[in-house]
Every structure is written in structure tokens, then in C-alpha cells.
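In response to reviewer comment 3 from the previous cycle, which asked for concrete evidence that the modeling workflow produces usable outputs, we include below a single protein chain processed end to end. The sequence was submitted unchanged, and the resulting C-alpha cells are shown without manual editing.
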Amino acid sequence: MTTTDAVHVDDTNREQLHAWDGDEGAYWAAHPAHFDRSVAAYHAVLMEAAAIGRSDRVLDVGCGTGEVALDAARLAPAGHALGVDLSSAMLEVARRRAADAHLSNVTFEQADAQVHGFANEAFDIALSRTGAMFFGDRLAAFRNIARGLRPGGRLILVTWQPLPENEWVREFSAAMAAGRDLPAPPPDGPGPFSLADPAQLRALLTEAGYTAVTVDGTAAPMWFGEDADDAFDLVFGLLGWMLEGLDDAGRARAEAALRASIAAHETADGVCYRSAAWTTQAVRV
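The workflow returned the following C-alpha cells.
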């Protein structure tokens, strides 16, 4: 039995499982420090909003290689943190990081948070750093997470603002398209901008069983590498799948366009692009 056969996922999340428990997740697992640094500004905002106490029980949804769950465990030495993700490769990195840090109050589990059988009212806080946008059925997912939170428990999310506010996605996509019109994700399907509309996000969480929903915006640079070569290697490795169907000339155009964009964004602090995210807070009814 393969890992993807062993984990129970909702049918709407099966494609996400194959991506994150396949090549995409493996790539993220191979570059944890780069990806953590890329969202460092939003990580700080998330942890400040979470205000984790010593005894809090924390759920990290879409935990990836574990940075949020590990920091939660440090802040809650008398509590516990559970990180869940679809990627077995990233979870292996998270467990290794926990062992290296001698943190015994954090655990990691491969699970689909949309359908996973969390114990009722088991958590005080649920967090997700750029992971909640990828559920196939977002209403079902947030309802299931709410079931795992105690009444009055808090949900804190970091999700991307709309595409025009995120230069990094626009520039990378345009470069890799090499002049093609690539199809956009369906507006009601999983994707990085599925929670980009704050009014829809508030309505979704209210319907899912939360109250006191607030959505605040943050703009911050996204870091992709120490220099242009470092950033190109990271981004090209991540988005190489977008070159499928291109001939050699098209691939060369895409590579040249990506190199040019990255070179134009090289600064004394590394390669940085403009980005913007929402920090959403809500309380389980």
C-alpha cells in the first residue's frame, strides 16, 4: 500500500493529495529553509495574532515542514501542537526538525483536515499559513476544523490577497507561459486565490460555525533566494511543470523571461517580489 492509498482523503482533495504527496511536496521538503524564509513576514503576523499561551492546544492545518507547529510548541510548553498535512515528505522533515529541537509536545500526522476525525473540542487554536486555500470543499473543511475546536476556540488564517496584489505570482506565471494563454483555476475550486475575497471569506466562516470574523491585510516582500541564480534554481524547479507542451524555442523563451524577471528583482537582501495576504481571525461558536 502506498502512502497515498493509506491516507483517507475526501474525493474533492484527491488531486491535491497526488500533488502534495508527490513531486510538488517532495520539492518543498527539499527546500524548507527557502520556503519558510519566503513567507517570514506573514509567519510573524500569524504568530502574533495567535497569541499562543503556555497550555494551549494548537492545530496547524497544512503544516508543511513544520515551522508553525514547532513555534507553537515552543510557546505552549505545557500544551501541545499537532500539525497535519497531505505531504509525507514534508512531514518527515517536520518530525526531524522536532527531534533536532528536542520538542516532545508536538506531533505530525498525514491527514486531510477536511474529513479527518479530530477529537471533539480538542484544540484551543487552529492555525493555517497559506494552506487553507486548497481544500476541495472549503465549507466542509472549516466545519470539521470547528468541530475540533472548543467553543470559544480561535481560528487564524493567512491567505493570499487577489492576484493583482501579488507581483510574484503574476511575474512567474507570465514568464513561464512564454506567450501562451494558460487556463486560470476555476473560481470555486482549490487554488492560491480561492479565499482572496474578504466578503466571501467572512460569509464562508460564518456559515461554517464561526463568529467575530475579522480580515486584515498585510503587504510584504516575498524572498526567493540569496541572489538571482539561487532564486532561479528554486522557482524554475518549482514551476517547471508549466513548460509542458512547449517546444525547445518556447522553453528557451520561458527560461530567459524568468531569468530576466528575477534579475530585475535582485536586491541587497536577495531576490524579493511584492506580495499581500489576509490575516483572518474568527471564534468558534
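Residues 248-264 form the longest helix (17 residues). We consider this sufficient to address the reviewer's concern, and the full set will be provided in the supplementary archive.
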